[in-house]
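Q: I'm writing up a methods section and want to include an example of the input and output format. Could you take the sequence below and give the corresponding predicted structure tokens, formatted cleanly so I can copy it straight into the document?
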Amino acid sequence: MRCKGICNRFAAKRPSGGFRFVAGQRPCSVCGVFIDVNSYPLHRCPCCNNKLRISSRNARSRKNKLNILYKSLTKIVTKQEDNAIMSPMLK
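A: Here is the clean output for your methods example:
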């Protein structure tokens, strides 16, 4: 599994927040390029066909990813609770 040099076409740009894993970008350990999994969903590098890393090696990024997931889940749960409270009042 060697880099063919075509990975520049698939390289993702740095997101404005700075956290690539939260934005859905995964790195290839062979090519050293981040690939956007949302636009290329195979979880393999299109250049060398190597598996992309799923989780971050950096503890700060992992912690931030978990915090963002927790916040989004709590928003969903509170919206569902609000809808459950408001629906009997609307009837």
